[in-house]
Design brief:
The chain is of the alpha+beta class. 39% of the residues lie in helices and 14% in strands.
Amino acid sequence: MQEVLTTSQAVRKFSMHPATVLRLILTQRVAAKKNADGRWLISKESLERWSRQRVRRRPKPEQGVVTAAA
């Protein structure tokens, strides 16, 4: 049987915002199904695959901070 995570577990394990997890589910970027209680169960393998492929943005440099030597 495939290992699954709840949305709360996915948020903690992958350091994501809850809305991001829901968006991934609703856009079918990760495999997920609702259980009998109406809670989402997300495929751990699917989330790991998405996490490896995702593009992370660099944080914006703060204003007034010099990033290169003058």
